[in-house]
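Hi support team,

I submitted a single chain yesterday and got back a structure, but I'm not sure I'm reading the token output correctly. Could someone confirm the output below corresponds to the sequence I sent? I've pasted both exactly as they appear in my results page.

Thanks,
R.
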Amino acid sequence: MKPINLEDRLIQFSVDIILMCNKIEKSFTSEHLAKQLIRSATSSVLNYGEARSGESTNDFLHKMKICLKELRESFINLKIQKGADLIADVDLLNKLLNENDELISIFVASIKTASIKK
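Hi R., thanks for writing in. Yes, this is the structure output for that exact sequence:
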């Protein structure tokens, strides 16, 4: 996958997360998890932008690992919200879980490839 295509997917993932979170109920739990989810989802794409400008292979790998960490956090957050029935649009939630899982797989593979070339 080309870097710009991955960036576009990460941006769309973040946008979809933001739009979904804007529709949640206004309970303490929902708002707490939604705010954290927005932070982790958007952090993944922002750090990917930095990774693409890495000053060295080590710098690139470090930022890619941060992206992966944030994507894993987002995935767990979505699973918590699903388990607690905090998101009404189950189809959208499942779509986001699937996309999140695919993004995690892409980052795992990219980090392995870059580590071998190091």
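A quick pointer for reading it: Helices lie at 3-21, 28-51, 57-83, 90-117. Let us know if anything else looks off.

Best,
Support desk
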